[in-house]
Amino acid sequence: MGDKKLEELSKFFFEIAMLKRTQRTGYAFLGTGKESTAAHSFSTAIIAFVLGKMAGADAQKALLMAIIHDIPEARTGDANAVHKMYLKRDEKRAMKEALKRCRPCKDLLPVYEEYEEGKTIEAKIVRDADQIDMLLSLKEQLDCGNGNARMWIPYVIKRLKTQEAKSLSKKILNTHWASWWMDEFEE
Q1: CATH number for the domain whose boundaries are 3-177
Q2: Are 74 and 19 a contacting pair, CB within 8 Å?
Q3: Domains of the chain: which residue ranges?
């Protein structure tokens, strides 16, 4: 690979690294908490993989789709529900322009477009994983004393499409956020 192509790849990698510093904006409306887009994408990807396995879908495709679903936010920033009422973002254009720098990434655009269309089982799973990640954050906030999170939870649940995500959401709501480690010390 030539110097120019390596330079373009370097720029692409710097761009996606920007997601580590891009803050998700919904927490300002919740009143507490914070999270980067990269942290959200990581959790969403693992959740999508597991939901994909549960649903008998292409779990690896769901994993990839979830990893890339927020790449455009390096250029557009994160917009929460209130922002979206007033802003028009061209995320597809942002994705196309980002991927121009990464020739080995050309196969990612159709995966992103499939996610955006939201019609395939994998796209639905990733959209649900995105909501499950939010639900986990809200449950953590609720368990830590932020009563505002209780008002948000029904809206998240209402957006779930797959039976696997709906079943999982019920269990999440009945599980304390810290039980994954607290239960280790029961004796």
Answers
A1: 1.10.3210.10
A2: yes
A3: 3-177
